[in-house]
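User: I'm preparing a small set of examples for a lab meeting where we compare how different chains pack in three dimensions. I only have the primary sequence for this one, and I'd like the structure in token form so I can line it up with the others. Please keep the answer compact; I'll paste it straight into my notes.
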Amino acid sequence: MSIEHEFTRWLRRNDKSFVENLRFAIKAWQSVEFSLNTKYEIIIEWISEQDLLQDGDVVVEDFVELLTLKVHPGIVGQQIKRQFVEWLLNLAKRHCNVPGVAVTRKWPEILKLLIEFELLQDLYRVDYELNARTYAAVFQCYEEYLIPMRNGTPFLFNHESEFLMSVFNTLKDYIKLCADISKYEKCFTKFTIEPFVRVLLELRQNSLDLFEQLVEVERLLTKESSGFDAALRVVKMPLYVRLMVLESSLVNRKCMPEFVQELINRGFNDFFSLLKSSQDPGLVLNVAAYTLEIFNRHDINLNMKMNDNNKTILEYLGFELYNGIKQYTDTHTLEVLLLLRAALRLNPLLLEQKVFELTACIMLAPKSNDHEEKHSFEEYLVLLMDMFRRLSRAEKFVANLLKAIKERVAFVEFDSGKVIKAKSPERMPSPAKKKKKLFYTDEKEIQLCLRMMFDDVFKPLDKSKCESVTTIIPTDHTFAKLQNFWPSRSAGAAFSKLITSLMSKPSLVIWKTLLFSLKDILEMSATNLDLDEKTLFLFDFHAALLSQYFAGCKLMEQYETHLDAISSQRQFSFEILELFGKFLLEREHQIRLMSSFLELCYSTACFELTLLYYKADSCLDESLNFSKYVEEMHSYLSPQEWVLVEQRVVNFGKPNCKFLLQRLQLQRVQAKMLLLSQATNLQYSVFPTLSNDPVLVNLMLQSPHAEWMIAQLEIKEKELIAKHILTNLDLLSIASHDLQLLELVTLAIFENLSQAIASKRSILKSLTSYFEKIRQCTEIGACEELIKNLIEIVIARSEGDYKVKSVNRTKIQNALQLLGQLPIGQLRRQRKTIAFTVELALYRDLKTAQEGDLAAQTLEIIKDLLHFGQRLFIFKYFTTESLLKVLPADNCWELYEYFFSTIKDEEKGTEQFLDGLATILFNSQCSNMLTAAERRLLMISIETLNSVSGVSAKRLRKHLNTFLEIFIAYVKNYFSSEHNDRTTKSDKKFVQNTLSGFIYYANSILAKQSNAADDNINIPEIDEDFRRVVKTYIGHSVSKERNSKGLAE
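Assistant: Understood. Below is the structure token output for the 1049-residue chain.
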């Protein structure tokens, strides 16, 4: 038997597995001693015959070792090597995507090494198709590996990019060494380009963009191709591949006119006929939009001439696009919007001649409730106005848009209040659910690839481009019927921004254009008593544009140089509103028409008020006279006609319509407050108007100008507002914007609290007679006298016994909740002191009535009152004895902690308070009746006075010795022989309660001994009793520390 046959028999041993035989083969390959020249060919041929291998038989480490072995390529025949490559490709096809098995990078790694296998390099250099198929298998297996990562699996960017860059670099090196690049390009396009593109799309989904690699590969493959051939190659590819390769080709050849012209000619030629013949026009429109976005991304020159005619690319594309999309605005609105947005981004002049007709068609097309479509529509309108702003053609935009809308509206039937059901084309399948067979691409997968590409390109517009320029436009409910045609929040705000950017002359032209257009509508509809939906839409649209014009207008900044033109326009606006109002009253009540009229009245008056308010004092023009304007405001209708309008709104109007009328009434009040007060330097009173109309008061408090208006009111008017707020609690936050109003609301709540206590002996009830004086009191001296009177009543009534039998718990609970919501701590000091006194009276009443929970809630409000805002001088108004009587320390200890925290700031009456407290504590100690609360007061007094610093420290510390003497007497009294019944437990409790004071006492004794020794002064030495007391304190304090550590552990 020859050595070849024996070696083959060893490789085919049935008692050994494939893995064992393969490892034997690798060792034989590497063996220097086994010098059989044909062993390499025998091993490769044997491996190629293993058709029944399972995935588990393919061990990565073994194949990595095999495919990295070094050997001269010519030592194995071409046919056997080709057979080996085909075998491994088929094995990868069978096992790359096994159901139920986790997908790893096993097969891409093996196939990558197959490409780099030294033995196969001569085969790959001559067999372009086999090389292209191998690369295709690498990309297809790698795509299978990437798909599960969409489900949230962490993506290792570095590792993946390293692997791919290795593959790409090998591919690029191979192309550079190709003898016939044109031939290899055909094989690559046939087998490899599609999986290559799919991998790039999957990577893009994982936020790793390697598009530059495709650009580089395409550059190498097509560097010898003409522009015509390169364009023809792109057009013949599958759709999603074509779009990706199109972009890479544009990057490489965008400066080559021949290629760009041929590409556009083939890509957009017969665009209209392609739409007609296609079963999916939406897809054709999306592809066209994608192509334009790519042109814009890579800055393609559109001014090049086309080959077959004298048109530029810009003119050619504009003609083709208009003819292609004009009939699909109703049926494929979203796709048309994407295409129009792409055209505007590419070049605003692309559709300039037809953009108004298309915009009118889009605006009046039936809309679905699809969010994407609505968002795209709003973005298109914003982008369109931004285009005309940059082109400085705003006047042309307004005039042509109005003309196009009027022409288009005659040919459509629509209901502005109705939306059609959302069109629901077949959505792309979820990437996690899709199952695909290797080396085969079905229709759903093609759609999925297209969706990946479109989502990457059709991104939402930057939010900053459609932000509101002002809060003047209340977009929540304004022109609700126009939301499907001209959304106020987006398009309306963008239109105001467009107007804001204009100089005076273009702004005046637009103002006049809008007024004349509205006049035309009024004249055309003069004979129609019953207005149809189209006419109502036109009225709404014109009123909206005029309102949004006034919201963004800046004419008042340059009125001095254009006074005559502005005055003429104001007079014309007056005439149009007069004509509009009479037109309205000649017909039966129509809610939409009435709402449009009232909106227009309000916005026009807002503009004129701004103009008058900011005019220079030197301007004496009669049309800008304050008094005359206020007198004639809204005078385009007579008072009798306004009464008719009001009757119609009240009887037939909906809530929004009533709101618009009330807003006009409030505007008159605001105008008088704004202009007449400025003209006469006197505060204009609106009390007669407000007192008779609670609805108007409510509207005023809800307006954006509520804070300013409240500041202009007199005290009597603010009292009315305070009462109104307490009946409309949703307006309670308004009170915090004005300090005087906050005081009045707080006082009104106290009045409600006094009514909730029925007992006439109540302290709070006895203060009720002072409430009117509190309102009227404005002088500091009078307020001080009033505070003292109130406190005297509280103290006097607290010293006697009285009973409060019944209280209205619900009413008190509600009032306390309101006080808790108000920032009463920010009141002025005197008013805050009054509030503290009234709260104190309420607290005493509730404690007497045994309403513990309500009393605790009141105490919390008192704490907040003291802690926030200006500090109250409590010691100034209360003696120590009276304070302890009104606020017992055992119930209100947190308040006393606050009181002592103010001592270091030298509050008024501090020293009197300390003297009084020392006297009380001394008397209690002398009578051996020092209570627990008094002991706590003694401890906090010593701690506070020992820690004071600053200028007042020396003066305040003189009180420290007094309190220390009381403390010494207290301690000595406890440890004296009179307390022989003491126990260890009682000693420990005593030490815990007095430890903080004893530390300061012991330190003072030791300091005296030290100072006496230094100065040679004879003082009594520390006696044995003191040592025994110190030892007791040390023992129990150490025990306490150990116990606390044990609990912590």
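A couple of notes for your slides: Residues 984-1015 form the longest helix (32 residues). Residues 407 and 748 are 62 Å apart (CA to CA).

User: Perfect, thanks.
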